[in-house]
Amino acid sequence: MARVYDLLMQDAPYEQWVKFTKLMLQQYHSEGQRILDVGCGTGEITHRLHQEGFQMTGIDLSSDMLTVAQQKNPQAAIEWIQQDMTTLEGLSAYDCVISYCDVVNYLTDDQKVQQAFHSIYQSLAQGGVFLFDVHSIDHIRNDLSGATFAEVRDDLSFIWFCDPGELENSLVHDLTFFVGNDGKYHRFDEIHEQRGYDHTVLNAWLTQSGFKVQGVFSDFRETPSTDGERWLFVCTKE
Questions:
Q1: Where are the alpha helices (DSSP H) in the chain?
Q2: What secondary structure letter does DSSP report for 176?
Q3: Which backbone phi and psi does 212 adopt, to 5 degrees?
Q4: Which of 134, 136, 180, 213 has the fewest CB within 10 Å, making it most exposed?
Q5: Which of 60, 4, 52, 12 lies closest to 36, judged by CA?
Q6: Per-residue model confidence as pLDDT tens digits over 68-82
Q7: What DSSP character marks residue 99?
Q8: In 3D, which of 196, 194, 192, 193 has the Cα closest to residue 230?
Q9: Going from the N-terminus, what domains does the chain have, and what CATH number goes with each?
């Protein structure tokens, strides 16, 4: 997946994530400089925030993703670490933790989500800010579950079946890629699983971990709401 991730994500709202992060830091931690990017993938947001002057650390479970991220700018003073977000180790006193692009949805077990929230809480300094997003339940049910996506390009083609999973509000992403190389196409397949959680449930788990939920925002709007496709949570360590 790391080989084609950036091609698939060309239209992702990276600048909106960066803008949202800066806006929330200005509001809740104006002196914050150290940011931990959990589930950083190929580092697009990490690099952008580094260019804005923040001290960045990128965490991902995939070593392939981290290799791509580091290769984008080997001279950048960014620390790249392979770790599981549910058991973060050796990381503390960060001003902000971010986890964007529905990373939390990849945790398909209630306990794993709660472990991740607790682990992230421990990685923050007092007064630190935790920002993350998830698919809204309506988006999962009405737009994703049962959908099929396909695209044909010169260097990449894919078919993406988005099937309902066994658990409530869960998804099984069945992806087939054809990647061009020297006039030939190489096929590979991947299965990804995600699960959606109601915002009230996430609020409760965050509170249990010690966070104060300052607001839930939909689709980068600047006023709280839960009627969009993407919920963005703003939490502080009190």
A1: 5-8, 14-28, 44-51, 63-72, 110-123, 137-139, 199-209
A2: E
A3: -105, 120
A4: 180
A5: 60
A6: 999 999 999 999 999
A7: E
A8: 196
A9: 5-137+196-237 (3.40.50.150), 138-195 (2.20.25.110)
